[in-house]
Amino acid sequence: xxxxxxxxxxxxxxxxxxxxxxxxxxxxxxxxxxxxxxxxxxxxxxxxxxxxxxxxxxxxxxxxxxxxxxxxxxxxxxxxxxxxxxxxxxxxxxxxxxxxxxxxxxxxxxxxxxxxxxxxxxxxxxxxxxxxxxxxxxxxxxxxxxxxxxxxxxxxxxxxxxxxxxxxxxxxxxxxxxxxxxxxxxxxxxxxxxxxxxxxxxxxxxxxxxxxxxxxxxxxxxxxxxxxx
Length: 229
Known about the structure:
The chain is of the alpha/beta class and 229 residues long. 28% of the residues lie in helices and 18% in strands.
């Protein structure tokens, strides 16, 4: 029988959902912290196959099928953390950088709908380094405005988030590749109402990439030699 390499935690500390899941990078990190994935979505068929091999679960496909109505949103279970590496092609310097004009660029608003409906404690999002600078910073401002202001307006002040972000390089954390990405962490405002704790968190987050206690790792250490025939 097939043994799943990364099985779910039987006694989880928290529950999370994994959107635009790829082959499961976010899920692996969250499971290592004691979390359990209770919903996952990925469009690409090859990524979905790899995800199944890794975790024994086939992700749902088109996320918009779960955000088109209140009934559809209710099909997503309540959760503590929403994880999502929402599509980056619309913002990458290697693409046309059409942002919200590109249909892939609007998928953040599906995350927004889910967050407004389910009100998770934390949103943990990822995109390309260029995301914060795209369209002279207006794209990032729009997303921040939605989470911090517009959601409050649309819920009569019942829920909104405080947003923080940092650009981190995978090589600073033991990976054998230089991969700079922006990470957005949005904490539900009622959980971040202590200004001292919030400022302390921002200071910690901004200094993560300056930590040098992790030994550098090189690509040749991870490349397997050719098998002998």
